[in-house]
Structure formats: C-alpha cells, structure tokens
Request: fold
Amino acid sequence: MAERPRDAADGEVRGGTRGIRARRAAVLALIHQTGECGVERLATELAVSDATVRRDLAALERQGLVDRTWGAARAHVSLRYGDAFVRRAAAGAAAKHAVALAAAQLVEPNMVVGLSGGTTCTVLARMLRGRAINIVTNAVNVATELYGARPTKVILTGGALKANSYELVGAAADGIIRSYHLDLFFFSCSGVSEAGFSRRDHAEAAVVRTFRSVSERTVLLLDQGKLDNHNPALVARLEEVDDVIVDGPLPDVWRARLRLAGTRVREVARTERHVPDAAGSVAAA
Reply:
C-alpha cells in the first residue's frame, strides 16, 4: 500500500484557502456517508496525512459541524431532543439516513431551499451545513442545527410553535414563506395512501402546502414505514409531488402508482452500518 503524504501542509500551500475548504467539504461528505468516520480512513480516502485530517476535524469542530470522538468524528447534533422526537428519530433511522444522503445530492450552490420539519429533514439539514445555499424553514430545530454554519444562510419563519414537532405554523409562517421563491422544497409525511401524502396535524400540513406553492421542485423524503397509512390532513395528491426519494425496493404496486402519477421515484438502498439518527443516537440498520 502506498504511504500517505506526511508533509506538514498536505496541500495547504499548493491549494491555498480554496483547497483547504474543498478538502474539508470532502471530509464532511465522508462523515455524512458513513455516520462516523475514522481519521485513518479519512486520510486514506483524501490522500493526506493523519495530522492534516486531525487539523481539519479540529477546525470543523470549532465551526460546530462535527464532534470528535476517539480517533474519529461524527456530525454534530445541536440540540437535546424531547422524548417524542427521539422515539420518531429511532424508527427507521438507517432508511432516513440513506434517503437524506440522496436528497443532499440534489442541492447545488446558491440554491434557495425549503426544508420542512420532521426527523428525515433534520438529518438532511445536518448534511447541508456549511454549503453556500439559502435555507427557508419553519422548523426551529432545523434552524438551530444550521446555526452558525457559514456560508449557509438560514431564514426561519415566524408562527406558533408546535411542541412535539418543533415546527412553526399559522399565518405568520405562511406570510414569510410566500415572500420567497424556492428552487427546491424537501418535506416528509406521516402517511401515504392512494389519496396522496398526508400528515397528522392540519396546521403543519397547511404550511407544507404553502411551501409547495412557491417551489419549482418538490421532493418527498419517504421511508417505507409510511406506506398504506392514511392521516387526516392531506398534504398533496400523488401527482402533485415532483420527486419521491424512498428506501427501496418499493413494492411493485406502489412503484406503479407513483410512476402512473408522473412522479419521479428514486429508490435508495439503506446502509448496513450503524448511523446516527435525527436525535443523535447511534442506531443499527
């Protein structure tokens, strides 16, 4: 095996500040892909020394983007979540991680991105920290997870706070959202039936509908545990969502329904690794 570079700078001088930023973005991407990544693997993947990786991790930790563990690092979790959110986060954690990872690949620099609340969107928010994008969200926890992650700009709507979901709802939220034009909007739901995508709470569903109305492209983040469930508040009919990213493979009947509706479907394989869930706990696949 070729020996890794051992020079003190490992590209700092050759690449300058831009090179350092690109390498640290690559470090973050690897951490998000693996859930937790060791120094040795990061050094091997990036063809730099262990010392350079440690400096990068120290810098990313100061920015609040990662938490260093013994010989490794994982994505930083900004909040201590309540019990109800913790329980939801643990359910299907590996599927949600895989779906969020695929969703993050759709986001390009300088986009204006809408993010709803929910556990999968929370995982996605961590994966978007530090990107040069603008994020509009009605979820207080999502905004907190993104806080201080320059150059990411965060716009938090006003509204009344729903305690269990951390989401802001009502006329104030609606007004702020309508003042933006979004390139992408990511959301999740509580149930999927032939009638469409639904949530348990009418006020939260109304905010999702407002987000959809000002978005060029709407993307549903779905784990299969929501299939064949119906909730009282309809968010969108099947044909009203542009893309569905789901842990696959889908049952044939659901693949056919979504494609008949004209919805683009991306089925992603869930990881077999242990990954941190939306509340920061490490959950098995």
Summary: Confidence is low (pLDDT under 50) at residues 1-14. The chain is about 40% helix and 20% strand. The radius of gyration is 19 Å.
